[in-house]
Amino acid sequence: MTMRIETAFEGATVTLRVIGRIRSEHLDHLTTHMRACQGTIELDLDEVTLVDVQVVRFLGAAELAGVGLRNCPPFIREWISRERDE
User: Fold this and answer.
1) How far apart are CA 24 and CA 55, in angstroms?
2) From start to end of 1-86, where are the E strands?
3) Using one digit for the tens of pLDDT, what is the confidence trace for 28-53?
4) Residue 50, CB half-sphere, CA atoms under 13 Å: how many?
């Protein structure tokens, strides 16, 4: 399965539910979706099954910029933490 994005709106918050495998070649597509959003952005990562290091760095930078990471799988959260510590 490749990456799929579903969009949900709740007031001023836009949730992008990301499903499947996110690879570095998908980041342009994800960034385009994020730029099209008005208001607060949250990425729901509950159904993400695979990421690569570029994606982890992207997610870490997005979080530092104010994007919420909802339902972030523990393996991704740990990897983001390790990348920040380096």
Assistant:
1) 6
2) 4-10, 13-22, 40-51, 68-70
3) 999 999 999 989 999 999 999 999 99
4) 8
Retrieve residue 12's tokens: 């001023």
Whether pTM > 0.70 for this model: the answer is yes
pLDDT at 86 over 80: no
Instruction: Calculate the CA 17 to chain-centre distance.
Output: 8
- The amino acid occupying position 52 is D
Q: Tokens in use for 44?
A: 């729901």
Q: Which residues contact 39 (CB under 8 A, 6 or more apart)?
A: 11, 12, 13, 14
- Map out the domains of the chain with their CATH numbers: 4-85 (3.30.750.24)
Amino acid at 31: T
